[in-house]
Give the backbone structure.
Amino acid sequence: MWWLVALAAVLSACGESKPANSAAKEEKQEVPASPAPVDTRPVIVAFGDSLTDGYGVPEGQKYTDYLQAALDEKGLKYRVVNAGVSGDTTGNALDRVASVVALKPVLVILEIGGNDGLRGLPVDQTRENLEQIVKQLQASGAKVLLWSMTLPRNYGPRYVREFEKVYESIGRQYKVPLVPVREFGKVEMQADGIHPTGAGYQKLAPVVLKYMKRELTD
């Protein structure tokens, strides 16, 4: 019977042994992934509605994409953050100011108010909202660059002129430089006649950059 006991011992030992590659796997330790590099570039926030959001065009064809590419090409080390929301009015933007301030931008490119005008909202309401937005941004230490805005002529010359004067008066009162929308010239538009195509947005970026660089070098 001694040979049965010996055989059982051998089989038991074989059952407890582990393949060499299994043991190697257990001994192998996972190397933790390196943390993503922190982007320390000063932040520029593009804050606005559908024109900033890039309504109707794919990623990479918004004016902020072309603006970032132009900054990179010129060796200007800033990070552009797109804070555009399609459909926003000045009232909606006022509700979002805190989220923009939280990004600690050195400059905010403010493009807002077109939807106020298209909806025929009272001009005084637009002015009050814009003033509050500008004051809160400036109080945070950010510089502000404001797109001047206009409306289609069929809204009536009086309303259009009063609307345009809002931007002129805020620019003077708060010493905010304006980007004249008329300087954009004719750009390729989408079928709605309101929003530029990708090629159209590409033409906006150099105009914005020209005015923006003055603020970054002050």
User: Anything to note?
Assistant: Residues 1-18 have pLDDT under 50 and may be disordered.
